[in-house]
Design goal:
- The chain has about 240 residues and is mainly β.
- Helix content is about 15%, strand content about 35%.
- The protein has a single domain (about 5-215), classed as hypothetical protein yedk fold (Alpha-Beta Complex), CATH 3.90.1680.
- The chain is built from five helices and eleven strands; from the N terminus they run βαβββββαββββαααβ.
- Strands 1, 2, 3, 4, 5, 6, 7, 8, 9, 10 and 11 form an eleven-stranded mixed β-sheet that branches.
- The protein is globular and about 55 Å long.
- The chain starts with a strand and ends in a 36-residue tail after the last strand.
- The relative contact order is 0.19.
C-alpha cells in the first residue's frame, strides 16, 4: 500500500516532462509528506485541451456516484488485481486514467526492538505511478487514486504492496484507456525496478505535520530482513 509519498517537481518542469498543458493555476506546491486527501499533481487526457493536461487533484478518489466525499481517505489506492471490476474504480480504469508524478513513496518496517524504520523508495528522475481520476459533484472536484500491485524484487523486503510504476514508454497507452488489463497493468520491467533506491529515512515523516527535504535524507539503519507477507484478510485498497 502506498499511504504517504513525496512530490516536489514544480508545474513548469512537470508540464515539459509530460508534454502537458499546465492547468494547475498556481495551485501546486512542493510536498515531502503527502497524506490522503492532500492536493497532488496528476496528468490526464482532456478533450477541451485536446491532449495531456497537468492538473491538481485531491488524493483519494471519489466516484461520480458518491453522495459525499467522506470516504476519500480510504480510496487512495486501487488494487491492480481488481481495479477493472470494482464498482468504485472500474469506470475510471476504463476511461479516466492518469499519471501521478512523485519523488518517491514511504513505507515502514517493524524493527526487532518493536519500533518502526521508515524507508523512502526513490529514483534520480521522477517516479510515475499509474493512477485513476474522477470529477465529483457540481463543482467537478478532481480526485485521484494510485494503482498498487504485489511488490517485486527487493521492494518486497519493505512492504508486500507497491505502486504500479510506469516507465515513459508506457505513459501513452495508460492514458489512452481501454486495452487488455493484463497488458496495461503489467508490472515494471527489471530495469525500472533496478533504478529504485530503497533509502532509510528518519522518523519525522511519520507525523503528517512535518515537511521539507530533511524528511528524505538518508539515515543509518539495520539491513532489511525477510520479505513482507500479504495479510491473510485482504481489502480492496
Amino acid at each position: 500500500m502506498c499511504g504517504r509519498y513525496a512530490t516536489t517537481t514544480d508545474a513548469p518542469d512537470l508540464s515539459v516532462l509530460f508534454d502537458a498543458f499546465d492547468d494547475t493555476r498556481d495551485g501546486l506546491v512542493a510536498d515531502y509528506n503527502v497524506a490522503p486527501t492532500d492536493p497532488v499533481p496528476m496528468v490526464r487526457m482532456s478533450q477541451s485541451v485536446g491532449g495531456r493536461t497537468l492538473s491538481v487533484a485531491r488524493w483519494g478518489l471519489v466516484p461520480h456516484w458518491a453522495g459525499d466525499t467522506k470516504g476519500a481517505a480510504r480510496m487512495i489506492n486501487a488494487r491492480a488485481e481488481t481495479v477493472a471490476t470494482t464498482p468504485a474504480y472500474a469506470r475510471s480504469f476504463a476511461g479516466k486514467r492518469c499519471l501521478v508524478p512523485a519523488d518517491g513513496w514511504y513505507e515502514w518496517v517493524r524493527t526487532p526492538g518493536g519500533g518502526k524504520q521508515a524507508y523512502f523508495m526513490t529514483a534520480p528522475e521522477p517516479i510515475v505511478f499509474g493512477g485513476l481520476w474522477s470529477a465529483w459533484g457540481d463543482q467537478k472536484l478532481l480526485t485521484c487514486s494510485i494503482v498498487t500491485m504485489a511488490a517485486l524484487g527487493d521492494l518486497a523486503f519493505v512492504h508486500h504492496r507497491m505502486p504500479l510504476v510506469l516507465a515513459p514508454e508506457r505513459w501513452a497507452d495508460w492514458l489512452a484507456g481501454g486495452g487488455e488489463p493484463e497488458v496495461v497493468l503489467a508490472p515494471p520491467n527489471d530495469a525500472t525496478l533496478a533504478g529504485i533506491e530503497i533509502r532509510p529515512v528518519g522518523p519525522a515523516v511519520g507525523d503528517v505535520r512535518n515537511d521539507g527535504p530533511g524528511l528524505v535524507a538518508r539515515v543509518a539503519a539495520p539491513a532489511l530482513g525477510a520479505p513482507r507477507e500479504e495479510p491473510v484478510e485482504l481489502t480492496l485498497f
